[in-house]
Amino acid sequence: MTDITDAYFSNLIGRLEELKQTLAEPMAQAAAVILDAAHGDKRVYVFGTGHSHMLAEEVHYRAGGLAFTVPVLVGSAMLHEGAVISSVYERTQGLVRPMLERYGMQPGDVIIIASNSGVNAAPIEAADYAREIGAKVIAITSIAYSSAIANGRRRLADVADVVLDNGLPPGDAVVDLEGTGLRVGPVSTAVGVTVINAIFAEVASELSKSGDAPIYLSANMPGAAEINQKLVKKYRPRNPHL
To answer: By its UniProt entry, which InterPro entries does this protein fall under (predicted)?
Structure first.
């Protein structure tokens, strides 16, 4: 392993170890909010623009994942239809509301919004919309990043019911390239998927105690086809991506 790869691994592992402590309480709060929604047969939406949208895909129809999750996936807010225009999209007011209306979010639902910078228009508008209709908002964001660049603007952390501060530095990348002034090795995705999977694992554990955990199996596991088919039939009416 080279010095650079070692530095990246060490940095990421160190951050995850630290987050086990600093996020223990807010992760417990997030799990409680999601568990309450699950008991009410509600849905948990996951939204992010740019690279943050990968957290929505991470929990969608995933082996070991919960079937009541709904990814909010809109091409113009992601990267594959045009990375440059997606950056403009996430900073433009008024585009998210009609997008979310398609999903039929209801009072008592939950939306997890991932935004590392925490100041762009799209994630904040998503949080405002969710709270207007009576849904709970869980934010995965960097307080350090949003505090450094807010310049008086509202931050996602200011409008969420539960804030999961990923502790990442402004700019996301964490490994210095000596003599260049540049950094490489972004970690927000790795941290984000770890945090969100840990929370859903906790929720699944609690639901399993009553035998009511709607968990997908890997398609190659025995009995997976029958179990997954039943879950899809139940949850497809409120998940347009199944």
So the answer is: RpiR-like_SIS, SIS_dom, SIS_dom_sf, SIS_GmhA/DiaA_subfam
Contact of 173 with 117, CB cutoff 8 Å? no
Distance CA 56, CA 154 (A): 23
User: 213: helix, coil or strand?
Assistant: coil
Tell me the sheet residues that pair with 115: 141
Secondary structure of residue 115 in the 3-state scheme? strand
pLDDT digit string (tens) for 95-104?
788 889 999 9
Average pLDDT, the chain: 91
Tell me the C-alpha distance between 34 and 155, whole Å.
23
pTM for this prediction: 0.94
Tens digit of each residue's pLDDT (9 = 90 or more) over 51-86: 888 999 999 999 999 999 999 987 555 556 655 555
The two tokens of residue 184 are 């490489």
The Cα 77–Cα 90 span in angstroms is 6
Enumerate the β-bridge partners of residue 228: none
Amino acid of residue 130:
A
**What is the SS3 assignment for 220?**
coil
d(C-alpha 138, C-alpha 147), whole Å: 18
The residues that bridge with 114 in the sheet, in sequence order, are 48, 140
